[in-house]
Amino acid sequence: MEAILNWILRAILIASGAGALVLLVRSLVKARRSAEERWPLRLAFGMLGLVAVYAVGHGRMLLNADEIEAGRMQYVRFGDPRRAELRRAEVRGWILDCTSAPENALARYAAHDGQVDRFYPLGQAGANFVGGGEDADLRDYTIERIFAEHLRRPLNLAERGELHPAGTDLSLTLCRGATARAWELLREAGLPGAVVVQDVTTGAVVAYASTGGPDDPPLGLQEYAAPGSVWKLALATLWWDSGLPDREMSCQSSIQVTPRAVIRNSEGFSIPRVQAPAEMLIYSCNTTAVQMALDMREQLGETAFQDAFRRFGVEPYAPGEAPQGFDRDFWRTASDAWRDRMSPRPARVRLTAETSRQEWAQLAIGQGPIDVTPIHLSRFVAAIGNGGVMVDPSIEQELAARPQEGRRVMSEETAEKLLAAMRAVVDYGTARSTAPVLDGLEWDLAGKTGTAQVARAADNGWFAGLILDPEGRPRYSVVTFLVGGGPGGRLPARIAAGMTRYFATSDQASFEPGEAE
Question: How many whole angstroms from its chain centre is CA 108?
Fold first, then answer.
């Protein structure tokens, strides 16, 4: 219908133009016979000649419209200097996963009909970290964008003089299958969130998936959230590292912290007596955690808490002096661009000698003025699995393959006690809902659940744990965070169990970063 209307309009315009031309010619002929001045007539006839030339040319354009459009597209592809420069800016090296096998590439590029085609096998699973997916060209927080200079680097001397060098591949610690599975589990949950999996000994990020739009900073790296009861791991670490003995304590349904402040257990449960700290972790007893925090403040002082939290990677601060910016020393990386763009915001906790009793009690259960990110919790939990030694995370395979000394943040004995309690959390504690997912596996899961209250919104859900190989050794840390996805013992814990099942049943579980399939 649109084409018919176009031709009708063209016919009307042509008829109108032809009629006007006839009238104009008649007027000029009449004027020529009577006029004494000849130069205006010559000028008018010259203009008519130009109109005739334009009409013939426009008519030819209409008749050859398809050929002209094809030629224009050829120019756009090969002749437009601006677009040629854009093509030069396209990354050319491949982004390889933890296996370094081309068939498992996270992003690959190929020249076809004069242009560079980009392929992202992960699709939306890698959109918020690797690149690709919807709105790929609009995303700034991606490996593809940040490592563009590396990927465009000529592979050898022969390529240095070429306009479009093939580029240099980038080998990552990310495993394609594990990342795809993490995204599937996150998508099935139907909530915003992030999943982070790290190798506990090397710090290599093995899987990362998160929700978010093109302009959103990475949720798993740069978005603050209160850790909820996951933070009880830090409380128990300080207790055991300070040499305090296990102690039988009450787990009443609520505790009166101040005349106006009461802290309750989730759903109001109570247990007459628990063996703290272990059973405080297993059953996630808020009231026991508060008693422990208040007792340690009296026995050890505020400085002990500040020093311990700082070791764990969480910076204490005074009111009005919250750390800002980004933690540029967090990653193990050779890329300043990665450090500038993807460093997490500093984990922080407001904690001084003047901190009120009510606020101190809140901190014991991971509420109040404490801000962390999933990657911070992943690094801390990985230290538990690494015998108390914390290593810096990395996504660059070359760096992750080199031994790193790390730094001890807790004793080996404390790490063993934490691991035993975390295994009990999954076996019969707050994460026992994972049993159907883990049934029949040689691999196992240990961890701590967390539920963080949010003002005027649904509770956030956390699970921070360790994936154990068939020998019972911690292999990976796994942290799942769901916005509005609490309690942590449900969806977040089941996602972590799903990742455990993936590693237990996938051949990729036996790969180390840098090994080819």
Answer: 20
**For 113, phi and psi rounded to 5 degrees?**
50, 40
- Secondary structure of residue 210 in the 3-state scheme: strand
Q: What is the DSSP string of 470-514?
A: TTS-EEEEEEEEETT---TTTHHHHHHHHHHHHHHH-GGGG--TT
pTM, full prediction? 0.80
Separation between Cα atoms, residue 231 and residue 233, nearest integer Å: 5
pLDDT in tens, 439-477: 999 999 999 999 999 988 999 999 999 999 999 999 999
456 C-beta neighbours (distance < 10 Å), count: 4
**Would you say residue 513 has pLDDT above 50?**
no
Residue 179 in contact with residue 121, Cβ under 8 Å? Answer: no
Nearest alpha-carbon partner for 146 in 125, 166, 172, 165: 172
Residues of 352-369 as b/e, b for ≥16 C-beta within 10 angstroms? Answer: eeebeeebbbbbbbbbbb
**CA atoms within a 13 Å half-sphere pointing along the CA-CB vector of 22:** 5
Radius of gyration of the chain (CA): 33
- Range 265-273 contact pairs with CB under 8 angstroms and sequence separation of 24 or more: 266/451, 266/487, 273/248, 273/249
How far apart CA 507 and CA 176 sit, in angstroms, is 12
Q: Write down the pLDDT at residue 516.
A: 37
Residue 268 Ramachandran class (φ > 0 left, ψ -120 to 50 alpha, else beta): left
**Between β-strands 247-251 and 193-199, what pairing exists: parallel, antiparallel or unpaired?**
unpaired
Distance, in Å, from the CA atom of 503 to the CA atom of 181, rounded to the nearest integer, reads: 10
Please report which residue ranges of 242-285 form alpha helices under DSSP H: 278-282
Alpha carbon distance 357, 263 (integer Å): 12
Tell me the angle at which helices 302-311 and 232-241 cross, rounded to the nearest 10 degrees: 110
Q: Which two three-digit tokens encode residue 277? A: 């700290």
Q: How far apart are CA 102 and CA 119, in angstroms?
A: 12
> Residue 339: which residues within 8 A CB-CB, separation 6 or more?
328, 331, 333
The whole-number pLDDT of residue 109 equals 77
What DSSP designation does 374 have? H
Helices (H), 153-225: 176-189, 219-222
Q: How many helices (H) and strands (E) are present in the chain, helices listed first? A: 19, 18
- Give the pLDDT confidence of 362-417 residue by residue, as tens digits: 999 999 899 999 999 999 999 999 999 999 999 999 999 998 889 999 999 999 99
Task: Indicate whether 90 pLDDT > 90.
Answer: no
Contact 485, 191 (CB under 8 A): yes
Task: Give the DSSP H/E element, type plus range, for residue 241.
Answer: helix 232-241
